[in-house]
Each structure stands twice: as C-alpha cells, then as structure tokens.
Structure of dTDP-4-dehydrorhamnose reductase:
Amino acid sequence: MKMLITGGTGQLGRAFSELTNIADVQLFSFSSRELNVTDTQQIRTIFNQIRPDAVIHAGAFTAVDAAESQADAAFKVNVTGTRNIAAACLHYSSKLIYISTDYVFDGKSSHPYTEFDQPNPLNIYGRSKLEGEKIAARICPRLYIVRTSWLYGLGHNFIHTILKLAKEREFLTIVNDQIGSPTNSLDLAQGIMTLVHTWDYGTYHMSNKGQCTWHEFAREIVRLTGQSVDIRPISTAELALPAARPAYSVLRNYMLELAGGDYFRSWQEGLQDYIKK
C-alpha cells in the first residue's frame, strides 16, 4: 500500500514513521511546505507521481486561539484544502483518512461523546474542522473521518512544556475545568493503520481511554518524571483566551467498540510509555 501523509512533520505525521509493523506500507510524508493543500496544481503533480492507495490528511490549521482572528486562513486550509485533497482522492480512487478533533463538540454533554452525538463547535477552529468533515464526505466516498483529542507525540507539545517549565519555576498554574482524553500519537497512528486496511468507511473516535483535566494530566507528567514542582489549579476564565474551549470533550470509541476492536489503552498507560521512550 502506498500511503501519502499531509502535515507529515506534525505529531501524528511523525508517529507513522515510528511504527514497526507496517512492512506492507510505503510512506510518502510531506510537510505543509512540501505539499500546500491549498495549491491544486501541486496536489495534482504529487498525486500523479505517487498515485497513493490511501491518504492521511493530517495537515491543518491547528492554532486554536489564532484562528479566532485568522478565520479566513483557518477555513482556507481546513475546508478548501480538505476539498482539494478529497477531490484528488476521488480522481485517483484513494482512500482518505481525514483527521478531525474533539473540538467539534460544545462540551455540554454529561457523558463521553460518541460518533452519533451532534457536533456543535464553540470556536473557529472547531467549525473549520467540522466543515472539513462535511466537504470531505460530499466528495470522497472512500472516507474515514477520525476524531481524536489532546494529542501528544514527537515535537512541541503539552508534556514538553510542562517539563521545561517545571525546571524553571517554583510552581505552575494549570486549568482544572476542562476534561478530555490525552492521546498518544503512536496509539492513534496504529489505530489508523489498522482501520485503513479495512473497507469500513465512516466516522470514528480514536482516543486513549479514561479522562482527566489538564491539571490532572500535568500532575501525572510531573509524578512520572520525578519532578517536585507545585502545580496549582486555575479556571479557564482566568486565562482569558480568545477561543472558547469545551469544558468536557471526552470521546468514546463507540464505532470501534461495535466492531469489537477498541484496542486503545488508558491515557495513563499511553503517557507512561511515551515518557519511558
């Protein structure tokens, strides 16, 4: 299988290169500079050269707060860019895996969100990703929409930030009123790789099991690494961020459960494994 990856230098894109059980897959990974998803001519050229069997569309405008003041840029990449990739997949009969987010939900649920719950994004980023889902579904019949949450992996992420600040400060203040499921990018990459070898198209939630606040997540990072910094809780309102966040965005991998294959481990196990490596 020839697999093309957009956003190849991101946390998920880089995770695919770490998988060890993909002997039957030839990876073609492109950064946003190497493959601009808003450039249809560049997309045509690359698709014609590779003729991929599957495309992992991980490239996106992901700056949640910046999107509030740069809505045109967010929609151009996340919607128009997705349309362009979906059209190329249709032309070359490629499977498309569109990476989406827990931010398509408003956080007002009292239970983990399944694939059958109604999206209602609170911010521009979430809206643009949801519209990307919709436009991909209108164009490409061989489509998997994969929503994930609180992703971390190689590169700059929340874990690295906490570890860096823990060495520099006596105490940290971390939000304690947002609840989600931290997800190891290697686990997500493996889940996607398993899914793409099937014909079971549709929408899937893929996150590590369990839930925590950002404050609890930070405390576990510090505990596992033997740091001694004090971590104090604060509210989201105290941060006064431009973009609203869902208070509760835990995802339930319900479609995987129905298929008898929810192979995702707990977020604690995923984090422990990441820190060991």
About this structure: Residues 38 and 140 are 17 Å apart (CA to CA). Residues 2-156+182-208+251-266 form a domain with the Rossmann fold fold (CATH 3.40.50.720). The longest helix spans residues 71-92.
